[in-house]
Write a structure and sequence with these properties.
mainly alpha; Rossmann fold; Serine Threonine Protein Phosphatase 5, Tetratricopeptide repeat; DNA Cyclobutane Dipyrimidine Photolyase, subunit A, domain 3; 19 helices; 5 strands; 5% strand
C-alpha cells in the first residue's frame, strides 16, 4: 500500500479526526504539519506558543498510536506525495490544498449542512437544524507508520523558540482534556449548567468555558464538546445554559459554512452585503484602540488584556469591535487583522464573520447596532474589578468613576457626536445601496 501523509492543519488530535481515519484506511501514515502555511498565518507569540506546545503533545500521541508527526517549513515537502487533510474553510487554506492535490475530508462541523443553501440570517439556519439529535464522536484510528524521508523535523527547534512565552491556559490535548473536565464535570454547580449566567464575565477563567482555543486548533472537536453537553444533560438536567452553549457551537458552524459559501467576500471591505462605507477613522484612532488608549475604560481594559494574554472574552470582543467600527469608524478589516495576530483562539471563519457582523456589512439584520461602553461596563463589570485590574492607574477611584470616559486618559472622540455622525452616514449609504440593488 502507498505511503500516506496526513497533513494536520486545525485538527490537532487523533480522536474523532475523520481525516486521520480516512488516511489510515489508505495505508501507512505519517502526520505532517507545515509551519509556513496559511493555518499559521499571522499568528502572534501567544498563538504560536499554544500551537507548538499542542504539536509536541500531538507528536507524543501519534507515536503512542504507532505513527509519528513531523513539522516541516514549506508546502513543497508535500508535493508529489499521497496527502489527506481536513477541508479547511479559508480561501488560502483551500488554495494550498489544491496546490498539493490533497484529498479533502470535511469534518469539523456539528451539523451536516449544504452550504450552498445557507440563509443570510443565523436564526433561520438554527431553526432548520434544531433539534440536533444524536452527536457522533469517533474513536482513535489504528495507525501504521513509515519512516519520514523529507525535511528534518523543526518541532524541537520551534519548541525552544517559544519556551519563554507564558500562556494563560494549558495547550494541546492535555489542556483540552483538563479544561473540558472542569467545564463539563466540575464541582456543583457544573459550569456548563450555569454558562448562560456567567458567559459575559470579562476575565473568563471561572465564567467562560475557555474551550475556544482548543476548538480553534482542533485539540477538541466540536462534536466532542456537544457530546459532553448531552452527557451532562443526561446526568443532571437540560436547561437554558446547556442550550446556550450548544447555540454557541451552532454559531461556529454557521460562520464556517458562511465562509465556505462566501469565499473571498469574507475579507472584502464591503463585506458579504456589498455595502461600500466611508471608513474615515485614521491610523491614530486605530493605534489608540490597539494600545488601549482610547479613553474609554472598558474598551482599553479589554485591549490591554488581549495584548498581555492573547485572550479576550466574548463580551469584550463585541464591545471592542463595535467601538472600533461604530464609534471610531475605522475599517473593520484592520480590527479583524489585529485579532488574527493576537488571539490564541483565532478562527478564520468566526473572526472575520463576527467582524463583518459588528461592522454592519455582514449577517446582522439590525441597522447600526451600538454598544455603549459605560453601560456595558456597568452591567457586566459593576464593581469595576476588571477595569481596575487592567488599568491600574484607576485602582484608587470608585467603581463608578472607573467607568467614566477620560478617567485614565483623554478620550480620542466624543461618543455621542461620533455615533451620531457615523449612524447618519451608515444609514444613508445602506438605503442608497438597497435602492440601487
Amino acid at each position: 500500500m502507498e505511503k500516506v501523509v496526513y497533513w494536520f492543519r486545525r485538527d490537532l488530535r487523533v480522536r474523532d479526526n475523520w481525516g486521520l481515519i480516512r488516511a489510515a484506511s489508505r495505508g501507512p501514515v505519517v502526520g505532517v504539519f507545515v509551519w509556513d502555511s496559511a493555518v499559521v498565518g499571522r499568528a502572534g507569540r501567544f498563538g504560536q506558543a499554544f500551537l507548538v506546545d499542542s504539536l509536541v503533545q500531538l507528536r507524543e500521541e501519534m507515536r503512542r498510536c504507532g505513527s509519528d508527526l513531523v513539522v516541516v517549513r514549506d508546502l513543497e515537502e508535500l508535493e508529489g506525495r499521497q496527502v489527506v487533510c481536513s477541508d479547511e474553510v479559508g480561501v488560502f487554506e483551500s488554495a494550498e490544498a489544491d496546490r498539493v492535490g490533497a484529498e479533502l475530508v470535511r469534518q469539523d462541523f456539528l451539523v451536516d449542512y449544504d452550504w450552498r443553501k445557507l440563509p443570510g440570517i443565523f436564526t433561520k439556519f438554527r431553526k432548520e437544524v434544531e433539534p440536533l439529535g444524536a452527536v457522533q464522536v469517533l474513536g482513535v484510528p489504528e495507525l501504521r507508520g513509515w519512516v519520514w524521508d523529507g525535511e528534518e523535523c523543526l518541532l524541537d527547534q520551534l519548541a525552544e523558540e517559544v519556551s519563554i512565552v507564558e500562556l494563560m491556559m494549558p495547550p494541546g490535548l492535555r489542556g483540552a482534556a483538563w479544561r473540558g473536565t472542569w467545564f463539563f464535570s466540575g464541582l456543583e454547580p457544573v459550569p456548563v449548567s450555569v454558562y448562560k449566567d456567567t458567559r459575559n464575565g470579562f476575565d473568563g477563567w471561572n465564567s467562560s468555558s475557555l474551550l475556544s482555543s482548543y476548538l480553534a486548533w482542533g485539540c477538541m472537536s466540536v462534536r466532542e464538546a456537544a457530546a459532553e453537553v448531552r452527557r451532562c444533560e443526561d446526568l443532571y438536567a437540560a436547561n437554558d445554559s446547556t442550550y446556550w452553549f450548544i447555540l454557541e457551537l451552532l454559531w461556529r458552524d454557521y460562520f464556517h459554512y458562511l465562509a465556505r459559501q462566501q469565499g473571498v467576500k469574507m475579507f472584502l471591505r464591503e463585506g458579504i452585503q456589498g455595502l461600500e462605507l466611508d471608513w474615515s477613522g485614521g491610523d491614530e484612532l486605530y493605534d489608540a484602540w490597539c494600545g488601549g488608549w482610547t479613553g474609554y475604560p472598558i474598551v482599553d481594559a479589554c485591549m490591554r488584556q488581549l495584548a498581555a494574554t492573547g485572550w479576550m472574552s466574548n463580551r469584550g470582543r463585541q464591545i471592542t469591535a463595535n467601538f472600533l467600527t461604530k464609534v471610531l469608524n475605522v475599517d473593520w478589516r484592520m480590527g479583524a487583522e489585529w485579532f488574527e495576530r493576537n488571539l490564541i483562539d483565532y478562527d478564520v471563519a468566526s473572526n472575520w464573520g463576527n467582524w463583518q457582523y459588528h461592522a454592519g456589512v455582514g449577517t446582522d439584520g439590525r441597522e447600526f447596532r451600538v454598544f455603549h461602553p459605560v453601560k456595558q461596563a456597568a452591567e457586566h463589570d459593576p464593581a469595576s474589578e476588571f477595569i481596575q485590574k487592567w488599568l491600574p492607574e484607576l485602582a484608587g477611584v470608585s467603581a463608578k468613576e472607573a467607568r467614566i470616559p477620560g478617567a485614565h486618559c483623554d478620550v480620542v472622540v466624543d461618543f455621542d457626536e461620533a455615533v451620531g455622525v457615523n449612524r447618519s452616514q451608515y444609514l444613508a449609504r445602506a438605503r442608497n445601496s438597497k435602492a440601487g440593488s
